[in-house]
Write a structure and sequence with these properties.
EC number: 1.1.1.23
Family: Belongs to the histidinol dehydrogenase family.
Radius of gyration: 25 Å
Cofactor: Zn(2+)
CATH superfamily of the largest domain: Nitrogenase molybdenum iron protein domain
Helix content: 40-55%
Strand content: 15-25%
CATH topology of the largest domain: Rossmann fold
Largest sheet: 6 strands, parallel
GO molecular function: histidinol dehydrogenase activity
Keywords: Amino-acid biosynthesis, Histidine biosynthesis, Metal-binding, NAD, Oxidoreductase, Zinc
Distance between the termini: 82 Å
Number of helices: 18
Shape: globular
């Protein structure tokens, strides 16, 4: 793995290289995605079934696109009992964490007849996209569905690509059932996003689409935004580890590789103040890669977007972490809690050598749907907030309006909006 001394030049080069992974750089696929969306919008189910045959090799029809109770029952029979137990334990943690994020309506009233407030309303129908293909992600089901359930969403629709046999992975179905999904449809890719955004004969239109996916899914979500809401346009996974001489190099190497194995565009970066640690981590990585099952993917990821950066002091290391704004940030230093207070930009922060990133992926409770590609500078993890909307409440009595109505009229007339002014004036005509 590349070991570099941290300089302004090397930092700039790294940031520019990482930005190449952004979905905003996928322009060459946009025309294909636009065509798929328009076909689904116009031809609805017919286009869905055609694309599913072409892209997934599965023959799906109006009679088979919806997952049945019998298929879910079969999934339970095929899932390892120990895995089911783990899914249930993780769900408790995820639910408990997200319940603390709940927001409630509030109202303030005054004796003169003013009432102001905010009404919190869950979204009515949400679509959750779950990837298929190269890998299966039941954890993604839990993380996308549970905050919606906690928020009180009326109906949760899930789409996921089928295998060539027309079936969905058993663990995905079981996770969906345990989390409380209402309906599951066998369709994936940009065509699934279009179906959720505009509706077809089989799939109802939703208010918001959440969930990760490949380049086509990311671009489709970007294209339908405005017709529906979306959570974010997720880029490839990434981890940054901040470490000093007290860190265990074997632990650090293992954690970096936990993200590099996602795909060839994943990023794994170590920023350390210790040259000795940098060299030891590099050796551990080389040894681990030879043993791991996804070694080809890992090696490509490390070659393209893996870095070990040696900083001159803690301040430079922390500044670099804030500029990269990584999806996952591990702090393995003498005083991780003190360092954490200086972190401004990160999707999720893991403190101490036993808080490995996969703990957050699967079990601890905080959401693993996180901002990527530097967007942690202005985006947050998926949360209950993503599944509610807020309405402002305003009520004035005549007695409350009378002392201030001339002020409102003056403001409106200043903006030359005479109808606005008139709407207030008519209430106080002689």
């Amino acid at each position: 793995m590349k070991i570099l001394t941290l300089t302004e030049e090397s930092k700039t080069d790294i940031l520019e290289n990482l930005l190449k992974r952004s979905p905003n750089s996928y322009g060459k696929f946009e025309s294909q995605v636009a065509e798929i969306i328009e076909n689904v919008r116009a031809k609805k189910d017919a286009a869905l079934f055609d694309y599913t045959r072409r892209f997934d090799g599965a023959d799906i029809s109006a009679d088979t696109i919806l997952v049945t109770d019998a298929e879910i029952k079969e999934a339970y029979e095929n899932v390892d009992a120990k895995l089911l137990e783990v899914i249930k334990k993780a769900l408790v943690n995820i639910r408990t964490y997200h319940e603390k994020q709940r927001q409630y309506s509030w109202f303030d009233s005054e004796e003169n007849g003013i009432l102001l407030g905010q009404k919190v309303t869950p979204l009515q129908r949400v679509g959750v996209y779950v990837p298929g293909g190269k890998a299966v992600y039941p954890s993604s089901v839990l993380m996308n569905v549970m905050p919606a359930k906690v928020a009180g969403v009326d109906e949760i629709i899930m789409t996921t690509p089928p295998g060539k046999d027309g079936k969905i992975c058993a663990s995905t179905l079981v996770a969906a059932k345990e989390a409380g999904v209402d309906r599951i449809y066998k369709v994936g890719g940009a065509q699934a996003i279009a179906a959720l955004a505009f509706g077809t004969e089989s799939i109802p239109k939703v208010d918001k689409i959440v969930g990760p996916g490949n380049i086509y899914v990311a671009l489709a979500k970007k294209a339908v935004f405005g017709h529906v809401s979306i959570d974010s346009i997720a880029g490839p996974s990434e981890i940054l580890v901040l470490a000093d001489e007290t860190a265990n190099p074997r632990f650090v190497a293992a954690d970096l590789l936990s993200q590099a194995e996602h795909d060839e565009m994943a990023s794994a970066i170590l920023v350390t103040t210790s040259k000795t640690l940098a060299e030891e981590v590099s050796k551990e990585i080389d040894a681990f890669v030879k043993q791991l099952s996804r070694k080809e993917i890992i090696q490509k990821s490390l070659d393209q977007y893996g870095y070990i950066l040696v900083a001159k002091d803690d301040a430079e290391a922390i500044q670099t972490a804030n500029e990269i704004a990584s999806e996952h940030l591990e702090i393995v230093m003498k005083n991780p809690y003190e360092v954490m207070t200086k972190i401004r930009n990160a999707g999720a922060i893991f403190l101490g050598e036993y808080s490995s990133e996969p703990l957050g992926d699967y079990f601890a409770g905080p959401n693993h749907v996180l901002p990527t590609n530097g967007t942690a500078k202005f985006f947050s993890p998926l949360s209950v907030d993503d599944f509610i909307k807020k309405s402002s409440i305003i009520s004035y009595s005549k007695e409350a309006l009378e002392p201030v109505y001339k002020d409102i009229v003056q403001f409106a007339e200043c903006e030359q909006l005479t109808a606005h002014a008139n709407s207030i004036k008519v209430r106080f005509e002689d």
